[in-house]
Amino acid sequence: DYSMATMAQELFSALQATGITRFALVGHALGALIGLQLALDRPEAVSALVLVNGWLTLSPHTRRCFLVRERLLHAGGAQAWVEAQPLFLYPAEWMAARLPRLEAEDALAISHFQGKENLLKRLQALKQADFSRRAAAIACPTLIVSAADDLLVPASCSRVLQTAIPGSQHVEMPWGGHACNVTDADTFNTILRDGLAAMLPVAREIR
């Protein structure tokens, strides 16, 4: 079962097994959707959310990207899937300057490929996820981060998400692509650090 509810429950169970019962969750893309699901299913456990390049419902553009990627997987197998992946994640100039790194990442991803069946089930779960009717019930502090040049998930999806979640905040990075946390880690980490500090203020000793 690859539903968001099942994946969220698996994460919650894993955290419980380590003794973690309350937490702030930072999720990117699929991770953001799992975060939304956990905040709805286990509101007592989620103290804050950071949603990076997530969405309420799949945009037509992202659906088209997924369709193209599925066709690549069927026609060219793991190698075609892996070699196309960076095109959806990174800005062109960033990739052009890091060809050896990308080739090394491709080789690693192919050697540890998760399997066609597993991958297709994950894609199906992403396509079916729809939080449009429930997002207003999310009560924890929420920060939404997007990149203006995200090729896979339009930045407008994050703006819609911010409108749907009461009291949420949205920060849009001007550059970085879908994997903006990788391509511009300094900017992303500053946004993340400041956002978490605002949502989870450290209690000060009262003298």
From TrEMBL:
Q: Which UniProt keywords apply?
A: Hydrolase
Occurrences of domain AB hydrolase-1 (ranges) = 1-179
Give the GO molecular function terms: hydrolase activity, acting on carbon-nitrogen (but not peptide) bonds, in linear amides
Instruction: List the GO biological process terms.
Output: uracil catabolic process
Could you tell me which InterPro entries the record lists for this protein?
A: AB_hydrolase_1, AB_hydrolase_fold, Carboxylesterase_BioH, Pyrimidine_utilisation_RutD
Which Pfam family name is an example for this entry?
Answer: Abhydrolase_1
Looking at the keywords, is Cell cycle present?
A: no
Transmembrane segment boundaries: none
Tell me the Gene3D superfamilies matching this sequence.
Answer: alpha/beta hydrolase (3.40.50.1820)
What is the name attached to this protein's record?
Pyrimidine utilization protein D
Lineage start: Bacteria, Pseudomonadati, Pseudomonadota, Gammaproteobacteria, Enterobacterales
